[in-house]
Structures are given as C-alpha cells and as structure tokens.
Amino acid sequence: MSDESSLVIGPSLDLDETQYSDQAITGLNQSWGKLYFERRQKVIHLLRQVPSIIEAVKSVQAGKRYRVVIPSEIRQWLNAGTARWSHRVDGLLGPVIKDSETGKFICQLGLEEISPVILPAISQLATQRTLVDIVQRLEVIDQKISDVLEGQRNDRLAIAEAGIHLYQQAIAANDLETRRQLLVNAVQQLNEGRELLMESLKTDVQFVDGLPRKQWQIVLMSFFKDIPALVRNKAVPAQQAFQAVLRASYVLALAYEALNEPDSLRMSLQPLREVALEVREKGEQIARWLPYDASAPPEELWRSGPLQLADAIEHTIGQVENIHMKTIKIGFTPDEIVPGEVK
Length: 343
Hints:
By secondary structure, the chain is mainly alpha-helical. The chain has helices at residues 23-47, 51-58, 72-80, 123-130, 132-149, 157-172, 176-204, 215-222, 227-258, 262-289, 298-321, 334-337; strands at 6-9, 66-69, 83-87, 93-99, 105-108, 110-113, 327-330.
C-alpha cells in the first residue's frame, strides 16, 4: 500500500509510452515530460545553493541517494511566508529557517541518506506528479477506443486539436511569457471544445434509452431490427465523442497545472467525472449487445473502465487539494549536486 502522507518524485514521470500506438498520446507525454524535467532542474539548482548540502554531498559515496528533510509544518510556514530561509553573507541559502517577522531561529535542516527535498519552489512539480495516475488511466481508455475504432478517423478529435496543439507549442516555448500566453489560449480553446463534445456525447448515448430491457421486448424488437448491429453502429459516434472528451480533458488539466492553477485544475476534472459516470450508466446496456473482443472487452471499455476512471478522478482531486499536507521526497544523486566531485 502506498503512503498517502508522502509523495515521491523521481528523475522522471515514468509514463508508460510503449503501449500507445497513437502518436498524439506519445507527443503529449513527451511535452509533459519536458516540463517535468525543467521543474526538477530548478529544484536541483536550489539544492546547489545550500552550502551544507554541498559539503555533505562531497563526503558521501557515489551512486547513493540523499534527501534534505524539511518538516511538513515548516514547509507550510514557508509557503505562507511566515517563515523564511536564512541567507549567508555570500548570498547563498543557509540551512537555517527563521521566523519572517522576528527573525528568530525555528529549525536547522539536516541531511540524511535516501531521497527528498521540500521547498516552496517544488509545489508545481509535486502537483504534476499527482496527476500521473489519472493521465495514465485516461490514456489507456483513449488507446482502447482507438483500437476498437480500428484506424477509423475520429473527426470529433478535430474539435479539441487546436487547444492540444497550443498546449504543445506552449511547453516547447523557452520564453516564459510566451508560454503563459499560449497556455491561456489553449485553456480557452479546450474549454470551448470540450463543452461541445460533452453535449455531443450526451446526445450520442441517448439511443440506449430505446433499447429493450425485458425478454418479451427483446423478442418483439428482434422481428423488426437487428439489435446488435444497431448498437454497433450507434456505439461508434459515442466512442468517438468519448475519446475526444477524454483527450480534451486531460490536456486541459495539464494546461491548468502548467499555469499553476490547482483550483481550476480540480474544477476541470469534476465535469469529466460526471461524464464518466454517465457513460458507465449507459455503457452497461451498450456492452450487453456488443460482440466480445478479448483485446478490448466491451464490459471493460463501457462499464468498468469509466467507473474506475471516476474513482481515480475523485482520488486525484483529493490529492491536489491536500498537496500542502504531504511530505514531498525528491530523488537526486550526489553527482547532480556537485558534478564530478563525488568519489
């Protein structure tokens, strides 16, 4: 069982890209990974400013991992501005935390073997890490829909593509102001596109209400219609709309996260949870009539998948809300702090 009170941040996001044949998903993961790398390098840069860390790292063995430990309550004070880092005469950060108003000593940070650092500057990095699980779940369902559609072009995705491309352009931009403006434009495009797609999806799944439930209804309707064929045909546009909603939703979440807007991020996930629950409700009847496919079982795609997604969204929202309560652990090797100086 994972420790919900802490958040471990390694050198990479560890996104599993090998299972995705859709190059659009791979491209999004690469953009997100680039942002993660940038943020982690900023944290490493901060560590290099703490002389006590540098001195301690020089004395350790190569290949091991270490952590700077800041108690969670101290981190909250740092974020709130009621506590501050001390500064040495040479301008570098010292290991002592002081009260912002009185200047009184609060604590001195220690260095211990194995892995984390908690600094105000890593709040975005930590938030990004909390989204990995939900992004992976969204991408798995996205890819399964692509497999079911068997290469058919999904024109619904075009509604979200403008916002997705703006997000990727933003992450590629080196100028921070340009990046921010592109992200703001991406959020606008994605919100507008997703709203249209969610309305379309609701319309597409309404056919389920006309399907027979009781045995006598099934027998009677079978005289006039091929029910499995009807469901297969109607399910295609619903799958396309659902895939487009998923993709617009997780890129929208990534854009809000990149803008450091956790409240907007949480609010953007809630409509997706509602859509997932609605698809699950309608999907129970859809899966009943679709032929079984071992590579993409209808039950998994239409019922259990959306239900698991809704649960994951609820968990992720809670994680983001409580990020300030967690002990954040960031892995680093001695060579990252003092390159070439650790024997």
